[in-house]
Amino acid sequence: MTRAETRPAPQEFDRVLSSMCTDPHPAARDAAMRFLADNPGDPATYPAVSDLEREAVAMLGDVVGLDDPHGYVGSGGTEANIQAVRAARNLADDDANVVAPESAHFSFQKAADVLDVELRLAELDDDHRADVDHVTDLADDDTAVVVGVAGTTEFGRVDPIPALGDVAEDAGANLHVDAAWGGFVLPFTDHDWDFADAAVDTMTIDPHKMGQAPVPAGGFLARDPETLDALSIRTPYLESDTQPTLGGTRSGAGVAGAHAALDELWRDGYRDQYETSQANADYLASELDDRGYDVVDPVLPLVATELPDREFRALRDDGWRISRTASGELRVVCMPHVTREMLDSFLADLDRSR
Amino acid sequence: MTRAETRPAPQEFDRVLSSMCTDPHPAARDAAMRFLADNPGDPATYPAVSDLEREAVAMLGDVVGLDDPHGYVGSGGTEANIQAVRAARNLADDDANVVAPESAHFSFQKAADVLDVELRLAELDDDHRADVDHVTDLADDDTAVVVGVAGTTEFGRVDPIPALGDVAEDAGANLHVDAAWGGFVLPFTDHDWDFADAAVDTMTIDPHKMGQAPVPAGGFLARDPETLDALSIRTPYLESDTQPTLGGTRSGAGVAGAHAALDELWRDGYRDQYETSQANADYLASELDDRGYDVVDPVLPLVATELPDREFRALRDDGWRISRTASGELRVVCMPHVTREMLDSFLADLDRSR
């Protein structure tokens, strides 16, 4: 190996439209830097960051309508989704299956492979939401968990969570809600999605997405302590007894960053951000519609639109970080770093590419 | 929630003797701060940190005697150990089992639960190393992977890796080496432990332990590309195709920090650190022996010693972060932040506690 000739620079966010992560809030960045070397996975050695984690989980409970939340701050949505399936599988009989909508994040494919459970994918309705009838058809006595998504990765849709809760209850299964991205905007909408709205057992909600915490800060929350018990592994040579997390050593930067972001922004700061992001999404959708593109109405701050391949490639060549849905639509995630000025610059480049 | 009255402080390292993590190297800390918001799990959006990861993996290959390494920088040793077992299980038949020594880290218990495989624990010899005869007895046609530890968590022992490779080969199984902690000191010893020394298939080696990178920076390395293929999940709506990692979003701070530490310290800096840490361990062992304690000879920079409960509690009350093995010994991990002055201060407090 030779030392790199030029020092590589971190990604600037001024052209990032594809990511569900964002530039962290300054208070969160500061806290992350301070706790960079702490390990919340070893609470006896690093008690301060453990205290911050308990407070962060309590604040996450406020966000999701749960008075006495059980959970932790982990590496992200994939870990939390795997853990939800793992807990449900461990609490169920053998041959467990998972029923999730086709819109579920690919981490459920990963969970199925890792955990050796069957993943049954339900069709979507005309508005990209889980088709409850098909979920009902797929669920059976072996179903360990029914998954609903509150803010889908591709189209920002919110599944009918209370109805999915009914299906789960009839099947004797858990209901898991993946609100990894949506969890910090949904409290300011009319959607039914959280522990207070429905019979939700577990939830994924990521501070490092719309919560403006630094990576890695994912949230895994459960209504009942038995869920974490089902995940616990004994831990010799730590001065604590058991560990319910998927990882071992964990990021103090992520935990302290999540705590600082929640402490700073919940609740008014997140509401302001939601309103700004949603207004930006509505604006972009309207501008694209004016140009004749077929746009999917943004019910949350995420715009999906048809876009010919030529324009997509030209925009990437212009330096825009953009990505597509599995069916080919351009998706623009209106994260906190995405400003009206960025969108105008993007639209100007789009107009030049046509 | 009310805002915390006093701002909690990160853990100072001047009394931490229990952790296998450490205060990161300044160059690594600086790189981590710069790349705090980058996500190596989304290489099309964050190409710079992806380039750093490729270089970091290549440098890790140099550390472990592997010319063309396949792998990635993940969340830590637990993830890498789970991934090693998962890859072996996916490449094997049903009813896979894992044979590991009783000294294996508890993450293998976690891997067995998560991956639904049988974990068979082999006895240790008189020097706390895997008993090869018992490993041989436990391995059979269903064994997917044999585990050896190169630097055990409790006693810093190095299993007979080449002999375990022979057992694995006879069983048609992979050989996985857990060098999470030991990987950055073993290159400067006479032990046979790496890809060049034995028929190793996969390895755990954590930059965030003796590698002086910030948390989270774990290393998972494989000799063959098929290993990563066995872990790959398709990734729609990212502009990359597949993802072999256990997590999704990953820490840019960890990847950039690992790169910076390796770039700065491999190879002379790590050798200097090994020599200092080993000298400290030898010194502490000698001082404890002089005081009449039964000390386990430190073959790597980790000292284990009998210590009555009363002294242990008194030292914890003095603010020392210390922990015990499952059989009750005090263990002191001579990490880079552990200086001779710290050890003298610790010994003085020990003397007062007697």
From TrEMBL, chains A, B:
InterPro entries per UniProt: GrpII_AminoAcid_Decarb, MfnA, PyrdxlP-dep_de-COase, PyrdxlP-dep_Trfase, PyrdxlP-dep_Trfase_major, PyrdxlP-dep_Trfase_small
Residues annotated with N6-(pyridoxal phosphate)lysine modification: 209
The protein's Enzyme Commission number: 4.1.1.11
Annotated keywords: Decarboxylase, Lyase, Pyridoxal phosphate
UniProt entry tagged with the keyword Phosphoprotein: no
Catalysis: reaction(s): L-aspartate + H(+) = beta-alanine + CO2
Cofactor(s) named in the record: pyridoxal 5'-phosphate
Pathways per UniProt: Cofactor biosynthesis; coenzyme A biosynthesis
GO BP annotations, alphabetical order: coenzyme A biosynthetic process
SUPFAM superfamilies the UniProt entry points to: PLP-dependent transferases (SSF53383)
GO molecular function, one term: aspartate 1-decarboxylase activity
Free-text function comment from the UniProt entry: Catalyzes the decarboxylation of L-aspartate to produce beta-alanine.
Record family assignment: Belongs to the group II decarboxylase family. Sphingosine-1-phosphate lyase subfamily. Belongs to the group II decarboxylase family. MfnA subfamily.
Protein name: Probable L-aspartate decarboxylase
Lineage of source species: Archaea, Methanobacteriati, Methanobacteriota, Stenosarchaea group, Halobacteria
